Amino acid sequence: MAFHLLYLLCFIVLVLLPCSTMAQTSKNISLGSSLTEQNDDNSSWPSPSGEFAFGFRQIEKDGFLLAIWFDKIPEKTIVWSANRDSLVPQGSKVELTSGGRFVLNDAKGSQIWSANSSSTAISYAAMLDTGNFVLANRNSTYLWESFDHPTDTMLPTQSLKQSGKLFARLTVTNYSTGRFMFSLNPNGSLMLYTTNFPQDSANFAYWSVKNTEIGFQVIFNQSGLIYLTSKNGTILDTISGKPLATQDFYQRATLDYDGVLRHYVYPKSSSTSGERWPMAWSTSFFIPPNISLSIVKKVGSGACGFNSLYRIDNTCECPTGYSPIDPNDELKGCKQDFVPQSCNAPADDFDFQEVPNTNFPGLDYEQFQGMAEDQCRQNCLDDCFCAVAISNAAGECYMKGLPFVNGSIDSSIYGTKALVKFRKHNSTSKKKDDSTLIIVGSVLLSSLGILNFILPLITYVVVSRMYSRKAVAVPPNYQGMNLKYFTYEELKEATNEFKEELGRGASATVFRGVLACDEGKCVAVKILDAKQVRESDLEFNAEVRAIGRTNHRNLVQLLGFCNEGQHRILVYEFMSNGTLASFLFGDTRPNWYQRREIALGTARGLLYLHEECSNQIVHCDIKPQNILLNDSFTARISDFGLAKLLRLDQTRTITGIRGTKGYVAPEWFKNLPITAKVDVYSFGILLLEIICCRKKFDEEAEDGDQIILADWAYDCYKHKKLHLLLEKNDEAIEDIKMMEKYVMIAMWCIQENPSLRPTMKKTIQMLEGTVEVSKPPDPSAYRSSILLDPAH
C-alpha cells in the first residue's frame, strides 16, 4: 500500500511540474510590481524567450528612457519608449499599482508618464515575445499595448491603423521627437512628411503610396512583409521587399532620424537558412529611394538643416565658409563664418566654391536665361544679396540669398552646379577687432604704470605661443583642409610605439592606434617607408592634398597627418571589418545583397572622385585590398598613394605604369593617354570578383578555361551558363537576371577600347537599373595576354 501511495505521489509531482514551469515562464507582471532605475541589470522585465526586455536604458549621463529593446543582441536596439522627450534621472520608478495604473515617476515622485488606460479592470502586465508590452484583464484581453502607441519603429505582427504615426528620432543618439513622420492619415492615405519642428504637425509630404483606394491599416506580418490593406483585407500596396522569416531574423521597420523608413534584419544565428548575413543590422529595404530629391519643397530646411548640403549616402556637410551650428547634430544646419558682402564695397575679397551635381531648389530672387556659367558667377559676385548661384547646362542662372534650403548633391542632378560665395580671408569681425585694438591702446597709453607691468607678461606669453606653434606648425601647403596635425611623439604614443601592424605595402606600413586626444578613437596610422623618402614624399603630398579635400561615405576619411623631419605619416579612420579581399575570399562568403551594396558603394565612391571633386582624382589601383569595410560593411575606397591628381582642364595625362597586375587597363601598356577610364576597367574586374567571390586569376582551377575569371565569365555569359560562376551560391542563382546584368556591366567596363567603357556615372545608372544594359562585345583578347605574360 505504501508503495502504491509513493508511486501515486511521484506521478502527481511529475504531472504538476510542467504546469509549475509554464507558470514561471509566462512572466506576467502582477499588480504592485515595480522597477527602479539603479543602473544595474535588475531594472528590466524580459519577455519569456528573452528576445525583448522592458525597462530603463541609459541615454545620457543621468538620463534614462523607459523603453523596449532587443535584448539578445549586443546593440540592445531600442524599439519603443515612453518618455522620449523627457528623460528621467537615476532612481526613477515605473509601477503597476494595486489599482491597475501603470505610471512612471521620477526620483522625486513626480509623474512623468502613464499608460492611457482608464480601466480599473487591469489584472497584470506582460512583456511579450513579439516586442509588445501589454496591460490585460483577468480574461487576458489587452486593455493597453505599446503596439498601439509606437514611437519610431514597427515590429512583425504589429499594425498601424488610420491616424497612426511614427516619428523619427532627432539624431542618432537623441531619441526625442524629430523632424519626420510616417502617417496613415484618417482619409486612408499613407505618407512620409516633414514636420513643423519642433511641433509634430505635418508640413510637407515627400513620399506616398500611389493608390487611389482608401487604406485601412499598415501590417508588418510574420513573414517580414509590410503592406497597406483596405478595410476588407485586400492588399493595396506592398511597401517592403523580399520576405524573411521572423524565426530566422530579428526584424524592425524604423523611421530613421534622416527621414528614411528602413526595413532592418539581423540574423538570429551565424548561418540562418543558408543565407550569410552579417551579425549586425542590415538594410533590406528603404523608402524613399533618394530623400534629397524627394524633398523639393520651397520652405523648411530639407533633409539636412539650413545652409547645408545633403548627399545620397545620408550625410550632411557645410560648404566652404560655413560650419555646423552644433557639431553633435548635423541636422541643425550650418552657420556663416565670415562677414557678409557689403553693398558699398568691392567684391575682391570673395570667391566661389564650385559644387558639381548640386541644387538648392526654390527661393530664387532672380533668374536669367541663356547665360553662361562665367557670367552667372560674375552676376552673383557683383550682387551683395547673392549668397549662391545655380548654373546649369541649359544656360539657366538662378540667384539665391540666405538661408539656403534643401541643398542636395546627387549624380542625377548632372549638369547643374552650385556656386557658393565665401570670403577668401575668414575674417569674422575685422571692424570689431580694429575698434577693440583702438580702445585697448588708449587704455594702455593712459596707464603707463599698468603697461610697464603687463609688457613683460605679454612678451612671455607671445614668445611661449610662438615656440609652441613652431613645435607643431602646420605646413602652409596643408592649411585650410580640416585636418589635424600630429607630432611624431603623439602618434608613437597612440600606436603604443607602433606595435599592432594592420598591413604592409611596397612603400608603407599601417598600424592600429588609439587617439587619447579624441576619446579613445581607433585610427589607422600609415607610415611611409623612410628608405623611399623621395617617392614617399611625392605620395604623401598627393594623398594629403587629394584626400584632405574629399568627403564621401564611400571613401576612407583622412583625419590628420604628420610631416616632421623624415616622418611622413597619414592618420585615417579605422575600418573594423578589414578589406574586401578578406571578406570575399575568406571562409565565409558574404550574401548576395551585401555584395551588391558593396559594388554600388564602390562605384559611388569612384564617381565622387571622378566627377564631384573640385579636382578630378584618378585612383589608379582599384582592387579588393583597397576597398575597406566599416562596422556596417559599407564599402570605403582607400589608398590614394597611387592616385594621379588631374587639373580641371586636363582630361588626359601620360604617366608611369601604376596599379596591380590583372586590374590594370590596356592603355598603361600601350603608352596611351591615361583617363578616369582606367578606374572603370579596374572596377569591372573587381565587380566580377564581387559577383563570383573568387579571385581574378586562379592557377589552381581544375579547368584551364576557368583560370582567368573575366574570360570564363564571358564564356559563361555567351553560352548562357552563368550558374557555373555561382557554386554554392543559391541566393544569387535565385536572382540570376540581376546577376546576368552585373556580368554584362562588368564586360562593358573591361573593354580594351577606353571609349567603349562607360563612365562611372553611367555604370551606377546601369547598376541601379535606370539605364538599360545592352549586349557587350567580347573583351578577352588583351587581358589574357597580359595576365599570362610573366613580363607584366
TrEMBL record:
One of its GO terms (molecular function) is protein serine/threonine kinase activity. It catalyses: L-seryl-[protein] + ATP = O-phospho-L-seryl-[protein] + ADP + H(+); L-threonyl-[protein] + ATP = O-phospho-L-threonyl-[protein] + ADP + H(+). Residues 20-148 form the Bulb-type lectin domain. Residues 1-23 form the signal peptide. Residues 496-771 form the Protein kinase domain. The keyword Transmembrane applies. Gene3D superfamilies: Bulb-type lectin domain, Phosphorylase Kinase, domain 1, Transferase(Phosphotransferase) domain 1. GO terms for cellular component: membrane. SUPFAM superfamilies: alpha-D-mannose-specific plant lectins (SSF51110), Protein kinase-like (PK-like) (SSF56112). Residues 343-426 form the Apple domain. PANTHER family: G-TYPE LECTIN S-RECEPTOR-LIKE SERINE/THREONINE-PROTEIN KINASE SD2-5, G-TYPE LECTIN S-RECEPTOR-LIKE SERINE_THREONINE-PROTEIN KINASE LECRK1. This is Receptor-like serine/threonine-protein kinase. It comes from Rosa chinensis. The lineage of its organism: Eukaryota, Viridiplantae, Streptophyta, Embryophyta, Tracheophyta.
